[in-house]
Amino acid sequence: MKQPLLVTHFWCAALDFSFGTLATPYIFYPHGALFQCGFLNIFEIPVIYLIIPGLLVILSMAISLIYLFESRSSSIINNRFRIKRTRTRVIYYVLNYLLYSPIVLILYNIPENQEAAKLEITTVQIVFFVVCSVHYLYVKPVFMSPLTRRYQIHFFIGIVIQAVLPLFVIVLTYAISIVAILMNRLTQSIVNMCIVTVSVHGLVESLAIISIHAPYRAAVKSLFGKLKYRRDNRVTSEESGVQNIISLSIHLNLVVEN
Fold this sequence. Notes:
With about 260 residues, this protein is mainly alpha-helical. It has 2 domains: about 1-210, no CATH class; about 215-258. It is about 80% helix and about 5% strand. A two-stranded antiparallel ribbon has the order 1-2. Strand 1 and strand 2 form a beta hairpin. Helix 1 (about 1-20) packs antiparallel against helix 2 and helix 2 (about 45-75) packs antiparallel against helix 5.
């Protein structure tokens, strides 16, 4: 499961980097005008060409979530729906990318209902793999030791929280904006808040990984422990150097007086 976790984390970080640094979108309300104020804007690239990479990052992040839960489901040995062959998995994810490719090719010519249908397909896939994992870990008896099963359940709960928590932050923000629209109280500050929330999605996901998975938490603690050890050694060395200088100065003064 290291590779699916790495892929998901990479695309979450890429989403942050895209929205927070490369091509930060600035939407003017209520005119609906869009302006890019990120790093790539200094090259005077047309807005349409900046939107396309952002869409690709969002779509790749969505598919990486499918990959995460599919890998978790396929790791259960007696799961009859697990994908066993690498070739089958490659074909499956190529089809997923082809499903979204018209968004990039014909950005403004796709009806809204097709976009909603694609979002529903992604959601259905994630829910299916989650249901399979829950069924074979909780409901159906599995041929594994109680300790292994407990570890599998613990890890499954961890990746669910890891995936849901960042999405919950985004969904909550956009739910507030939808309520503001319905109440006719949408302001520029709420629109800006939605963009900022997307740009910190990866940060929330990183904090979730560190909080949930003990090995990552131990690695971070070890890193800070090493930094503290180096700092203490440096301070001790500096103090020793100062003491040596003071001792040498006192010794020289005594020699001169004698």
